Amino acid sequence: MKIYTNINENIPNNCVATIGFFDGLHLGHKFLLEQVKEQAISKGRQELIISLWPHPSYLFNRPIKLLSTYKEKIALFQKLGVQNLLMLNFTDEISKMSRVEFTNQILIKKLKISELVMGFNNSFGKKEEIKQDYDLAIPVNTLNRYYLEGNIEVNSSIIRQMLNLGQIENANNLLNYKYALSGTVVSGYQIGRKIGFPTANIGNIDETKLIPANGVYICQVLIEGSKYPAMLNIGNRPSFNGSSLSIEFHIPDFDANLYNKEITIRFIKKIRDEKKFENIDNLVIQLKKDKETTLAYFR
What we know:
Layout: E1 2-4, E2 16-20, H1 27-43, E3 47-53, H2 56-59, H3 70-79, E4 84-89, H4 92-95, H5 99-110, E5 115-118, E6 140-142, E7 147-148, E8 152-153, H6 156-164, H7 168-175, E9 180-186, H8 191-194, E10 200-203, E11 215-223, E12 226-235, E13 246-250, E14 262-272, H9 280-298
């Protein structure tokens, strides 16, 4: 995959292109990219995926949390076999362009694309133009709304809602991969070690990244190329009168110093909500149940 970050780079001409933010690269996006690829092949041309960054909500001071970071998005495009990717800097100047201006000045004059393939809700131009029909100087093929079997709609907003509710399995089904957080192991409160469940705390998570709802999850931890089953808690540690959000995981039967290591957590399933226990003994009893549930899943 060739990656471009500037419209003045030597990007191939006459590409079949699509444009959007593509948060999470879910099944709907995958369907769109497949159509772009097929259209390009049928015309004997190359494909060009134009992905905006940052998300428009950040430019308009109404930031939302995202399904994929900048680096994660590029990796997902790579995995899907994209031929040419332009990570277009979404500036204030671009945000103020009309659809015709953007098409003529950027898509035609600068990028010299031959045609556009767009998703049903995939658009560009000023806010007041978003729901208007296309009337551009290049051919535009707009696809139908994408559904999974059972009439299940797939879009980034729905997936964000699912993650905010802790519905990991549903979100993963729409993404077609396990939702993940990446960061660095940082020092914690060392409480878990005292009760037989040593935990590692995750920090330095990209500030744009959406963190799933508070609760206890079955996860898979990736550390230096190896994978480990783990139980993870997102929350405020109410049993210890915590006030700040912490994300900490326990790998059963694992004893190694993870401090400062870069890790990735893949979410598999939510076990339960976070709760405050009356005493440490009751907490330990529940943690043992969570451990057995986690190990049983991987067995």
